[in-house]
Amino acid sequence: MKLVKSLLLGSAAGIAAVAGAQAADLPSRKAAPVEYVRVCSAYGAGFFYIPGTETCLRVSGRVRAEYLVGERFGDNQDAYGTRARGRLNIDARTATAYGTLRTYIRYELTNNSGLYSTAGISPFNAGASVPTAGFGRGVGTTGSLLDMAFVQFGPITAGRAQSFFDFYPNDFNFNSVRTADSRLNLLAYTATFGSGFSATVSLEDRVSGTGGREVNFPGSTYQGQDFPDVVASLRVEQGWGAAQLSGALTQRKLTTGNIAGAVEGDEMGYAVQAGVKFNLPMIAAGDTFVLQAAYADGAIGYLGWNSGTFGLGRLGALALADAAFSGIGNNVKTTTGFSIVAALKHFWTPELRTEISASYSELKLGYLNGGGVYFNPLDVRSLDPKEFIIAGNLIWSPVSGLDIGVEVLYSHLDVRSPVTTVNNFGGRNALLGIKSEDAIAGRLRIQRDF
Asked: Is the pTM of this model over 0.70?
């Protein structure tokens, strides 16, 4: 019995030794280590490390659906409009020995119809880039926009970004009140001093931004600039809110034509602005109040006016310019003006909020016959428009990132001299002389941010 047991144990040991020797002869391959996506908490929620790098990336976006109802100023215009917009944001940041290296891209695709397509007909399009009043039924249009694309490396910002002149960039209500709000090509340097204080000097190309800047007044031709606009701002951000003082310097070169004897003129324009934002947690968490005032001479784009045309419906498209020849001694005269903006955000509950914004603005044109068609041909006074806009909404956010809201806007525009109406080029009462117009519109918005 002992002999049989020994034979069995010896056979098992021999088989194990042979199997081990054969296994040693087989090729060996180790599995490659798996690199999982890691959360990056250095720059806030939503960032993760790009595998194989030390760069943190955040991908976000927005889908917006809007439905607008407004006044019809012509017989062949729609009384409504629709909009669908998609936005994609890409934010990449890397910590370096020189500070954070950041690249940011915001790209949008928009489809408009009805009042959105005819543009200036709707008071909701009032703002820094009011288009010419359209005519005919609004046809669906699709457009793309590179809204932002910039690099930040330490104190340097280069690319397409929000103007450093701006303080309140129309970020409460659905509409745009009359205030500076531009994304444009720039090169800026920002110095930080601690305790929330910073100062910025920026070279900004207004031609690349939202809103035109060519001087298109009849008899005057824009000749271009020798240098971009120079913008400087001083800002403080602390627990109570924020405040900013900013200024801009720009050049206006004009000629009366490209013929012998043409007169040329060169003027400098400027704008100054002061704004303050108060956080009001003692009323409700998230409550904010903003107050801002601006003055401009030869640079009305910094007030939110478009250096081109204005008018909302019956007044049609009336010409504005930063500067023009006065017709008396061929002197260049600049347009001056001011704007005042107030905005409030209040949370009734964490899911229900109201936003109210208003603006009042006046312009004094430095030239006669402000580009409009006068009801009285003997009247040679400038138009000198005065405008008041107010809007209020109610927004429900049932879940995080989803907004469902309605808004009502009222606008009132006065001009100094009566002008003929542009009632959609051939509508009723096309020869009625008016000095003011009122408009009201409503909008429904459903928006998802992610």
From this structure: yes
